[in-house]
Design a protein that fits this description.
Number of domains: 2
Helix content: 25-40%
CATH topology of the largest domain: Rossmann fold
Strand content: 15-25%
CATH class of the largest domain: Alpha Beta
Structural class: alpha/beta
Distance between the termini: 57 Å
Length: 293
């Protein structure tokens, strides 16, 4: 029997509707959650992503403050803008779209953002809070994966979870969140140095793939009945598409015939990432009520 398709789009919309209601309550207190999104240059993928974020914010009743800068912007200019946003009580979240041009050190930019406004959860303080389980923002994509698993009543406690990919955005934070006591999973993290990838993937009750390689995971290296979460999003050539390309994940779609649950690309984890970003912006606005008294 083919896998149950995990509908991240519907769940994401449900979460966003709930956030819209909470935003309306916050507005009655005179606060409208606001995210400042900084885009340096005009990378097509980044422009598209920023546009989708802005649309989602507006639909939820929040403010999107778009700051577009030329590609030749210098690091000190960007740091100055971030400093101003850090001190602006009407801006609750700050997001700098990556990647940045080579003349700007990304680490310096991340470190300059006030952790109270770090809705991407990239600042070392935010990461540290996540690792030790303190209250704070959770990174958007990993948090979205966890909620998607919970929505489909996938048991985490005691499950053997294998993550393929060790990025700071997905793999590493997912590892840390999954081993927290409330999730209680046993986790293996695979990467380019893993000698026998199939040995690990075939033992996974839950397989989460975020490697950035189209169709990396084939059916023969997936355990029968496994839950498979595809976080990858890749553009591959497709002459039959008007755009000349199509989007696909890191998992071969044939895995649907072997898995028990499967998150597709697009429509799986992607919409959850946007929903979690909005949730972090709302939380930042709620915290600002006491922070700026």
């Amino acid at each position: 029997m083919p896998a149950v398709i995990m509908d991240g789009k519907s769940l994401g919309m449900k979460i966003r509707l709930n956030l819209k209601g909470k935003t309306e309550l916050l507005q009655k207190k005179g606060i409208t959650p606001c995210l400042a999104v900084i885009l340096v240059g005009e990378d097509p993928a980044s422009v598209s992503y920023v546009k989708s974020k802005g649309k989602a914010l507006v639909e939820a009743g929040m403010k999107s403050r778009d700051i577009k800068l030329p590609f030749n912007t210098q690091e000190d200019e960007l740091l100055s803008i971030i400093n101003d946003l850090n001190n602006d009580k009407n801006t609750h979240g700050i997001l700098v779209q990556m990647p940045l041009p080579k003349q700007i050190n990304e680490e310096n930019i991340i470190n300059a953002i006030n952790p109270d406004k770090d809705v991407d959860c990239f600042h070392p303080v935010s990461v540290g809070n996540m690792v030790i389980g303190r209250q704070g923002f959770l990174p958007c994509t990993p948090h979205g994966v966890i909620l998607l698993l919970r929505e489909y009543n996938i048991p985490l406690s005691g499950s053997n979870v294998v993550i393929v990919g060790r990025s700071n955005i997905v793999g590493k934070p997912l590892l840390n969140i999954l081993i927290h006591k409330e999730n209680n999973a046993t986790v293996t993290l695979c990467h380019t140095g893993t000698r026998d990838l199939s040995y690990h993937t075939q033992r996974a009750d839950i397989l989460i793939v975020a490697a950035g390689k189209p169709s990396l995971i084939k059916p023969e290296i997936v355990k029968e009945g496994a839950v498979v979460i595809d976080v990858g999003i890749n553009r591959v050539s497709d002459t039959s598409s008007p755009k000349g390309y199509r989007l696909c994940g890191d998992v071969d779609e044939a895995v649907i015939e072997k898995a028990s649950f499967f998150s597709p690309v697009p429509g799986g984890v992607g919409p959850m990432t946007i929903a979690m970003l909005l949730q972090n912006v709302l939380e930042a606005a709620e915290r600002s009520i006491t922070s700026f008294k």
